[in-house]
Amino acid sequence: MKLRHLALVAALAVGAAHAATTARAQDKSIVVASTTSTQDSGLFGHILPLFKAKTGIDVKIISQGTGQAIDTGRRGDADVVFVHAKSQEEKFVADGFGVKRFDVMYNDFVLIGPKTAPAGIKGQDIVAALKAIFAAGSPFVSRGDKSGTHAAELDLWKAAGLDPAAAKPAWYREIGQGMGAALNTAGAMGAYVLADRGTWISFKNKGDLAIAVEGDKRLFNQYGIILVNPAKHPSVKKELGQCFIDWVLSADGQSAIRSYKIEGQQLFFPNAESAELKKAG
Amino acid sequence: MPDSAVIADGLHARAAASTGSLPIRFEGIDFAVGATHILSGVELELHAGGPTVLMGPNGSGKTTLLKLAMGLLTPTAGSITFDGASHAPARARAIMFQKPVMLRRSVAANIAFALEAAGRPSSTSDIRRLLDLAHIAPLAERPARRLSGGEQQRLALARALAREPQVLFLDEPTASLDPSSTKLVEEIISQVSASGVKIVMSTHDLGQARRLAHEIVFMAGGRVVEHEPAASFFNQPATEEARRFLAGELVV
Amino acid sequence: MDGVGALDLILSGDRTLFAIVRLSLLVTLSATLLAAVVGMPLGATVALTRFPGRDAAIVMLNGLMGLPPVVVGLLVFLALSRSGPLGSPGILFTPTAMIIAQAVLIAPIIAALTRQLVEDLWAEYRDELTAMEVGPLARVKTLLWDARFSLVTIGLAGFGRAAAEVGAVMIVGGNIDGFTRVMTTTIALETSKGNLALAIGLGLVLITLIMAVNAIAWGVRQWAERHAG
């Protein structure tokens, strides 16, 4: 009899917990799989309240690496994917998992390194900088997590005609973690690391790290947004998801992104191809 | 103190009306653990009537015999029958161990548990009756594990009686009790016996055996050495072992 | 935010922090309750029954006490994903999924410890309960009830493990701000944002909470043991 009571209590507790926490979910909410860079930089904390105020829709952000975020969309566990690795995004759409991809905004990557500049790098040329790091064997932290930043880093090594990810020299350290963790690690071991500018500006534990290379047009970092295909996953909240995408691409959404600043620095630059925006711009 | 005759009446009515577990017959009983023989070739018949008291030195097999009769152990060889059947009727037997285990709950809840285990609704009046019988009514709400040794023994007795058994086995019921507790327990035993419940008990207390026993089963070295009416056992023990035991000499 | 900021946040009873603490307790206490309801009878049943392969089952149960949270998280994630076998109710990335994952994580701990406890208690009770002709199911109930004070400690072991883990809730909850963000995932997030002082501050809050739950359980146990033991 005691056990039956306990079972009842447990069922009630779980039920209550479920009800208490999903009541809001049943209102109006969508799940957006996005990247650590957009989340950790605080962008969503800035724009989502504006979106909610306008539409009443709760946006639940799962922040993952781009590769994992796209996989979350592929499994049907998110309604919208908001990431930064164009080739992976296009493949996602081509495979039929996404409806259509839209450019949203960009920022740029920066090469971060110790202020002491062990590889003697300073300037604009990212390819030359990577060659110098390779030649000197300076410690380099790679995300190694199939994120957008990781993909960009591998592309840059390729442009330099080098492939440390295959050779795995001791100075090249793949940590398999998010942007913040990579910066913490680089700071602790005096290593170079490729970071998106947004996360770098908002990062609080800079220590002895500083920007070593910036401004190269090859460091351009484009973000895209995609509605997960309801034809593949009927559970996708098509209308609400589309509503979010429309807002992000609208003049309102774009100016919300533009207005997000940390210490006076703008982190993301909207570049959606909306007629409205062109008019406004 | 409640009128014990009235209390015992309930027990008496059932015990007298029921049949099916007596006589208990032990035929060719061996009990061994590994190479150690604890009982060998025990032949014994226990009939309805006054208390049967098992006596004998430590290690003579009294506790084992009680546990076999209760069905807690299975003989290595031989058979035990209850009124000719190989199984006693359900709930016909009860036992009180030398060191009874108190359930971790109140005194009243211990009795309620025994009543429910015996398939009977634990009515307040039944619990009350058993508490009174064991003289532990004022302790009803106390945690059972906090009782004194004598109180625990009486609670165990009440729990056993909750089963309304035809046969009650008692393994050294007063072994570690002070004289006044011993007296109380003996009174309860006499009362229960008078109500028609067959008592089979072991004891090392010669005085107790003289006071309670209708017949004596004397055991030594895993065998039944004597089975006599109490009076003749104490006055004229038939065997040398029994004589020496009664004289307080070492019996091996 | 610096260390002073973390302290401010904690002392000022920040509402976001309060919501995170509340969710952490809700998730972990529910998971502990769920795991106890499954694990305790299971452990007691294994303790009281003899069946072929029992030794192997016990070794496995004991081994599962070391289940890695991320593996549990991944398995629950795969099961609850829209593409998984239990995907249709859509509970991935909800607190319910987190409760399930933590319950899966700690049920073996509770079952294994209960098995040992009940087996020891059974050795003490066997003759008495057999003599009272207590049936198999009632034995399980009786032993669990009589072991209740020690079971509280076992529940706390499970609670501590669930409260401390981050791997499973991160994967199945998604660390969604204001919805599935709990103490441990917040600490992981703030660490990755470089807010080490805030992360430490939150860590101290978490440790304090775990201590408080243990203190309450201890007090209840002391009181109950004095009055009903």
Write a concise synopsis of the structure shown.
The complex is a heterotrimer of chains A (281), B (252) and C (229). Chain B is of the alpha/beta class. Helix content of chain B is 37%, strand content 23%.
3D structure, described in words:
In chain A, β10 (261-262) and β11 form a beta hairpin. Chain A contains 13 helices and twelve strands. Chain A is α/β, with parallel strands linked by helices and 281 residues long. Chain B is α/β, with parallel strands linked by helices and 252 residues long. Chain B has a single domain, classed as P-loop containing nucleotide triphosphate hydrolases (Rossmann fold, 3-Layer(aba) Sandwich). In chain B, α3 crosses α4 and α3 (107-117) runs parallel beside α5 (149-161). Chain C is mostly helical. Chain C has a single domain, classed as MetI-like fold (Orthogonal Bundle), CATH 1.10.3720.10. Helix content of chain C is 79%, strand content 0%. In chain C, α2 (15-48) crosses α6 (136-146) and α3 crosses α5 (95-131). Chains in contact: A-C, B-C. The interface between A and C is large, with 44 and 41 residues.
Average predicted confidence as pLDDT of chain B: 90
CATH class of chain B: Alpha Beta
Order of helices and strands of chain A: HEHHEHEHEHEHHEHEHEEHHEEEH
Shape of chain B: globular
CATH superfamily placement of the largest domain in chain A = Periplasmic binding protein-like II
What is the CATH H-level superfamily of chain B?
A: P-loop containing nucleotide triphosphate hydrolases
Which terms summarize this structure?
A: 281 residues, D-Maltodextrin-Binding Protein, domain 2, 2 domains, 10-stranded mixed beta sheet, two-stranded antiparallel ribbon, disordered C terminus, C: 229 residues, 10 helices, globular
Record the SSE blueprint.
The complex is a heterotrimer of chains A (281), B (252) and C (229).
Chain A: H1 2-26, E1 29-35, H2 36-40, H3 43-55, E2 58-64, H4 66-74, E3 80-83, H5 86-94, E4 98-114, H6 126-136, E5 140-142, H7 148-159, H8 164-167, E6 172-174, H9 179-189, E7 192-196, H10 197-202, E8 209-213, E9 220-228, H11 238-249, H12 251-258, E10 261-262, E11 265-266, E12 269-270, H13 275-280
Parallel strand pairs in A: 1-2, 1-3, 5-6, 5-7
Antiparallel strand pairs in A: 3-9, 4-7, 4-8, 4-9, 4-12, 10-11
Chain B: H1 4-17, E1 24-33, E2 36-46, E3 52-55, H2 62-70, E4 77-82, E5 93-96, H3 107-117, H4 124-133, H5 149-161, E6 167-171, H6 179-194, E7 198-202, H7 206-212, E8 215-220, E9 223-229, H8 230-235, H9 240-246
Parallel strand pairs in B: 3-7, 3-8, 5-6, 6-7
Antiparallel strand pairs in B: 1-2, 1-4, 8-9
Chain C: H1 3-11, H2 15-48, H3 54-64, H4 69-80, H5 95-131, H6 136-146, H7 148-164, H8 167-173, H9 183-192, H10 196-228
Helix pairs in contact in C: 1-10, 2-5, 2-6, 2-7, 3-5, 4-5, 4-8, 5-7, 5-8, 7-10, 9-10
